[in-house]
Design a protein that fits this description.
The chain is an alpha/beta fold. It contains 5 helices and 12 strands.
Length: 224
Amino acid sequence: MSDSSDSLPELRASDADRERVVEVLRRAASDGQLTVDELEERVPSAYAARTRSELERLTADLSVESLRDATPATAQAASGGITVREGPGGDRWIVSIMGGHDKRGRWRVGRHATVLNIMGGSDIDLNDAELSGPMTEVTVYSIMGGGTIRVPHGVDVQVSNFAFMGGNDAKLGDEVAPPGAPTIHIRLVSIMGGSDVVRGRKLTKEERRKERRLRDARRRDLEP
């Protein structure tokens, strides 16, 4: 009599699983375990992985010390990739007038932040930001302009928007934040302009090309 467990399907990977593995790979590259070429090869594979076993193979040759060192960062990524340090301070205004503004990397966000785009645009990346409280409100005014706000996985993101002669877009997927996760409420107000809210990090050109090739190859495999 055959073991029924042999027919069980492999566990599917979640977006949070993929982000954790990508963080481990980046740390491994920073301490010299992976070359730049190896990192560029594995990151798209991590984002394209369908099962957890595929993700495990990408880190199977990394040292135990590296994986242990990466645990705090990956746990942080699982809870949103954002550090919450309650207290005063943090950026409250980001203004782009007839120009552009990029905000990324390590920076502190005020509890109530305002982004103003007038005939210009701003790219705001919250993946590595530090929040000054468990609830953050970001209001984006775009007048004949716009921009993109990138939010991390594992964070409760709420979006409300108003657009006149323009449009806003939110691409957050169907991810549900874990209990106790920080909340980011984004208000989009656009007049003859528009802004986008996107979950996850921005891929490099090479990562996008490799991800597209993998997606095309998978589609061909599924064709009858």
